[in-house]
Amino acid sequence: MSRSFLRFLVVSMLAVLTFVVAACGGNDNSSSSSTTKSSGGTTTNAAEAPAKKGGTFNMLAASDVDFNDPGHTYYTWGMVFTFATNRPLYSFKPDDGANPVPDLAEAAPEISADKKTVTVKIRTGVKYAPPVNRDVTSKDVKYAMERFFSVNVGGQYPGYFQPIVGSPAKPTKGVKPISGIETPDDQTIVFKLKQATGVSFAAALVMPITVPVPEEYAKPFDAKSPSTYNTHVAFTGPYMIKNDSKGSLTGYKPGKSIALVRNPNWDAKTDYRPAYLDAINVRTNATDANVAARQVIDGQSMGLDTNPPANILRDLVTKIKGQYLSVPSGGYRYFPMNTEVKPFDNINVRRAVMAGFDRDAARKARGGKYVGDIATHWLPPDFPGFKEAGGYDGFSDIDFFNKNNEKGDLAIAAKYFKAAGYASGKYEGNDEILMVGANADPGKAQAEVAQAQLEKMGFKVRLRLVPQDAVYTDWCQVPSKKVGMCGGAGWFKDFADPQSMLEPTFKGSLINRSSGNINYSMLNDPKVDDAMNKAALLEGDARLQAWADIDKMIVQDAAAIPFIWDKTTLAFSKNVNAVANPYIALWDLSYTSIK
Q: Which end of the chain is more exposed for a tag (fewer CB within 10 A), N or C?
């Protein structure tokens, strides 16, 4: 069978499926982009700034990672550590967010002429950290991808990889072999696909699912439900979380701290990362964002994981030079409404909420104009499909959500409340809405604004504030908790294609009712699912228009309120060369250095 190398810019796709990848499940840290240099308050990285090796980087974080396990993490803050300690098949250098480079792979993937076979060659000389201490093989990538589908592991983005022949439609009990993943030798892995989706499948090989996992070491941990590999990860990157002789992560204190040290088995000749730092210490319970931000700016600590609170962010951007990076995300922040929880099971109630909701007030809670443009639909600026979806104006024929009602329109809201049976033009029922939000700013302020917005429309709201990581892992991702509105969700591209922006968050067939569910709205619209299935097979302009139409369908379903097309500001002390990762638009710990 003839093969052609997939170049990182596929002309036939009109750049739709370039390997521009940026983060996944969003947090209050998220964003994305790349750029080049930063001498201070700019929108660029400092990857090319003078750097020296050595030193310990100390960071303050408002929350813990979701998971250390690369097969389970889908939270941008978790990926900060995953990409410093492990190596997926493909990844991004900080000076180029448009063209991925081979990482664990030695070259670009090969796609067959019929687009049903993708072949990847694995780099030699990549070795696991202690206690595994052996070379990585293609079989490790195969096992990593098979375990992803196990309910024990809880992989959270199955849609991109279900095209593999033999992939399970639902999570399996235990790790099961997948016939469509073949390893003819230790340096080759071959993916057989059910449909001609090789281009989009190859674009997704930048995701953590491709981080290798040694079966003989991980299998006992994966036999447990849930898997305990999360606290015994075998690392392949320049850094590792401190562990003991049995592999237990002694440097990970859940909800308290994470300590990274150099991986003694990392060979710089096999990696493009410079890995300047000797050690990285992160306190993950610095929940007073005002105090943490000022400590970083004053030099008492070196880096902040998240946007500073609105008042400090404003001063940082307008008055302080040389201590921040502003990074656009390629994503959105939003308030999902659970369509299975009363009264949000009524589409007219949801449309009323969208109409009356003051998106500008929510944006101000996060920092105003400095945190991004107010969203009028889902696909963000400078992203494939944005123009086709109405650009900044959105869909003018949808009266309950467009550019003209950014501050909310209670008259239009009243119209939809009346259509739902509430004659007063406000909600008159007795159902209490459970809203879950972060206990640290800016997420806390954002959730409080959302609570006030609902209450002005007649709702009773019970706001529960928890650590940022728990907003997802313990609440919004667990359908049985019946969260009516997630008080702070974010989504950032998995790769630069509208499929990655809309499918994980709104495809009904991907709802996971146990845990790790990403469709927070529980939207299950057969018409949307059918349109997504058809759009996934298209290319070029037809693909963009199809996903733009899906964007409109989701707005019409009123499943959630997008309020910002996001960007993030990273704050750091004067003695730090700060570098952002273009995949997740947070810290790139493998490039950051001390001056």
A: N
Beta bridge partners of 294: none
Residues 6+ apart with CB under 8 A from 159: 503, 504, 507, 510
| Number of folded domains that form the chain | 1
State the residue range of the domain holding 586. 23-86+236-595
Q: Where are the beta strands (DSSP E) in 7-155?
A: 56-60, 90-91, 101-102, 110-112, 117-121
Torsions phi, psi of 400, nearest 5?
A: -85, -5
CA distance 581 to 492: 13
Under a CB-based contact definition with an 8 Å cutoff, are residues 292 and 60 in contact? yes
Q: 496 versus 204: which is more confidently predicted? A: 204
Beta-carbon contacts of residue 323 (< 8 Å; ≥ 6 apart): 40, 41, 297, 316, 571, 572, 573, 574
Q: What is the pLDDT of residues 515-543, one digit of tens each?
A: 789 999 999 999 999 999 999 888 889 99
Three-state SS at 292: helix
Q: Are 468 and 438 in contact (CB under 8 A)?
A: yes
- Confidence (pLDDT) at 299: 96
Distance of CA 188 to the CA centre of its chain: 28
146 part of a folded domain: no
Q: What is the CATH number of the domain that holds 303?
A: 3.10.105.10
> Tokens 């529960």 belong to which residue?
464
Say if 285 falls within a structural domain. Answer: yes
On whether residue 144 sits in a domain, the answer given is no
Round to whole Å and give the CA distance between 193 and 543: 20
Q: Is 117 helix (H, G, I), strand (E, B) or coil?
A: strand
- Other C-beta atoms closer than 10 Å to the C-beta of 41 total 17
Contact yes or no for 563/359 (Cβ under 8 A) = yes
Tell me the pLDDT of the chain averaged across its residues: 90
* Beta carbons within 8 Å of 486's beta carbon, 6+ residues apart: 335, 336, 435, 436, 437, 471, 475, 476, 520
Residue type, 326: S
Q: Please name which of 193, 93, 115, 180 lies closest in space to residue 142, comparing C-alpha atoms.
A: 180
Tell me the pLDDT tens digit for each residue of 191-232: 999 999 998 899 899 999 999 999 999 999 999 999 999 999
Region for 154 from its dihedrals, namely left if φ exceeds 0, alpha if ψ lies in -120 to 50, beta otherwise: left
DSSP string, 379-417: SPTTSTTTTTTTTTT--TT-TTSSGGGTT--HHHHHHHH
CB 554 within 8 A of CB 529: no
Q: Do the domain assignments include residue 158?
A: no
CA distance from start to end of the chain: 53
SS3 at position 174? coil
Q: What is the pTM of this model?
A: 0.79
